[in-house]
């Protein structure tokens, strides 16, 4: 004769099935009780870290991606060294109009813009009226235009009185999506990006408009609009010039 009996075991909710056959019985195996003070929950879960995830990885996954420049949005802050090693921070100029110029002293377009084209004297003219002008070189070590001495020489040759900042890692250039040298960005007094693109409509960088039309300096227009409290008429124009010499 076979007799089956089910018993509700203990308060842990275990169900034991006892099978009695010819006088033999199978008893449930007892589980060891949790150690004193233990919750029975894996330590990683109790600490807020998903089980199986190495310590610190959960926090890394929660970190926000770096801000990327977009028109009408706050311009990403940065701190970069100038040619004397002094760190220059964008947020220190809140309350002023700021122009960022991506720069490469050995790029033919940058050289023509600064010796013949629309960048001749432009920065000095605007900084005399309170605008902050910062040149940024995102060229990596070993690339065209990289190096303190090359940039010092260009600063003298082009008669530049504003800082040249070095972004050798390319981090700031990538956050602003700088593509060319020169590539210009205008930031208003509230820290918002209001213009990005070319210095003008002279894609040969010689300061002469194609097809004989009027030369348009887009940066001049943007700064003038800000001064008059108007929206920038052409906030996004195609940049021209050499590619930024980022790290490979």
What is the beta-strand fraction?
15-25%
Mean pLDDT metric: 81
Which blocks of ≥5 consecutive residues have pLDDT under 50? 1-63
What class do helices, strands and sheet pairing give?
alpha+beta
Describe the biggest sheet? Answer: 5 strands, mixed
- The outline comes out as globular
Radius of gyration, whole Å: 33 Å
Spatial order of the strands forming the largest sheet? 8-7-6-10-11
Q: Give the number of helices.
A: 7
SSE arrangement, N to C: EEEHHEEEHHEHEHEEEHE
Tally of DSSP β-strands: 12
Characterize the quaternary organization of these chains.
Answer: single chain
Q: What does this protein look like?
A:
The protein has 248 residues and is α+β, with helices and mostly antiparallel strands. It is built from 7 helices and 12 strands. It has helices at 43-46, 57-62, 108-115, 122-127, 148-157, 171-176, 218-227; strands at 2-8, 15-21, 24-25, 79-81, 87-89, 98-102, 132-137, 164-166, 180-181, 183-187, 193-197, 242-243. The strands form 4 sheets. Strands 8-7-6-10-11 form a 5-stranded mixed beta sheet. A 3-stranded antiparallel beta sheet has the order 1-2-3, with no helix packed on it. A two-stranded antiparallel sheet has the order 4-5. Strand 2 and strand 3 (24-25) form a beta hairpin. The longest helix has 10 residues, at 148-157. It starts with a strand and ends in a 5-residue tail after the last strand.
